[in-house]
Hints:
Layout: H1 19-29, H2 32-45, E1 49-52, H3 57-60, H4 76-86, H5 100-108, H6 139-148, H7 154-164, H8 177-184, H9 188-199, H10 211-221, H11 227-234, H12 236-241, H13 244-251, H14 255-266, H15 274-280, E2 288-292, E3 298-302, E4 309-312, H16 314-323, H17 327-364, H18 366-371, H19 381-388, H20 392-398, E5 403-406, E6 409-412, E7 420-421, E8 430-431, H21 432-445, H22 454-463, H23 470-479, H24 485-497
Parallel strand pairs: 2-5
Antiparallel strand pairs: 1-4, 2-3, 5-6, 7-8
Helix pairs in contact: 1-17, 1-20, 4-16, 6-7, 7-9, 8-9, 10-11, 17-19, 19-20, 22-23
Amino acid sequence: MSLAPRLDLRQSQSLVMTPQLQQAIKLLTLSNLEIEAFIGDALEANPLLEMGEIPARADAGERDEDGSGDTSETPREEREADALIAEGAAESDAPTDLSAAEMEIDRDTGDGSWGAAEGFGGEDDGFAIDSHGGTALSLSEYLHAQVGAAGRDDQEIFIARALIERLDEAGYLTETLREVADALGVTLAEAECGLALLQSLDPAGVGARDLAECLAIQAREADRYDPCMARLIDNLELVARGDVARLQKLCEVDAEEFAEMLAELRGYDPRPGLTFGEQGGSPVVPDILIAPAHDGGWRIALNEATLPRLVVNRPYLVELRDGCRDRSSRAWLKDRLEDARWLIRALDQRQKTILAVASEIVTQQEGFFRHGVSHLRPLTLRQIAEKIEMHESTVSRVTSNKFLHCPRGTFDLKYFFTSGVGGGEDGEGASAAAVKARIKALTDAEDAKAILSDDKLVTLLKAEGFDIARRTVAKYREAMGIGSSVERRRAKKIAAIG
């Protein structure tokens, strides 16, 4: 056996993902709003690309069956561009070998099958991005604006602004006043004056250090903080336990007045700062629109309002072609045009794939769209992948970061994939979401004098065809934040008083 070095030639096969394939896979995962940002970057990188307009509905029916359309009215620049794309020159000189018929796809980033579908509106309808209001003020900005107009001395304003920066998202002061005073280098009395200024701002209850103080501030703002209300707020643990008799005795009021106090207390906001967090959140913009069809089926379309269209800038392409005199310039133009073609085709394939997955989801979960969550079936990614003859990973990417809007509301596509529990007559069991919805409905409808135990819930669910164990009921109940039978009995007892 020779130990000398030598050179060998070997052939081997390997599966390599090209950068374009990797990019196409990434496009499947992006939502329509993320696609818009991606297209913005592509427009900056490729001068041959430009934004296209959504065609009017009247134009949709003017195309021939082969998609080529009537070229008699096509501008001269476009006819020259189509001829340029279709010309059969040598590979080193021609920008591309794409035919004019294929180039029709580039006109509107697709073949029009998911355009302005009937019933979804056109360019001015739907879920346009600019139809939503601008970003609302945050809690911190709202409070700082009020402090500036308070007219107090500079020291109080300085301390109040420092306290605002120490509030949590619910509006509570998370540090002790002594710690704040030491950090700012002021006395405790000065810190208390700054806190008093903060607590006088809107919304009422902001700047409190605990729940009792938050409710007390709101009671003072409503001019209801009398000694009876003060004793009620000081004994919130008894309110949580539902000890009505002891609370009424401590407050020294009759049953009617105690019910009014309890109703007043229930109307206060225990987390005043969260109102600004909710207003400042971005609304969910759906990627897919579902609407009932006249024939009893469903119309499915992509949300055109959030889906930009790409086209090839034909006049500019002709102009660049005329200016390319050397081989390197023609090669550059060829690469740019091929990149544009690939991106338009990738977006076209993305749309087809999303619609295929969404259509199959609607088919599998038609009971949900017609009757509600109680008819939601167990569904897996593999079931959808087998039906549309795609890989399971492709379906997973398509359903990521996508939202579907239907007459019942807006839902994440992942919402329709639920596990099965129990065993039904059909052998597939029931959807976990359907079981949770039924548990919530039963507990919401129960009477204060007849609270349902977990065993009773199991019995009722089995009578409706949900064969599940008691521990499963308890797990689902706790996951939804529904208390035990004892906790619900106390809550309903207090609610009955108010």
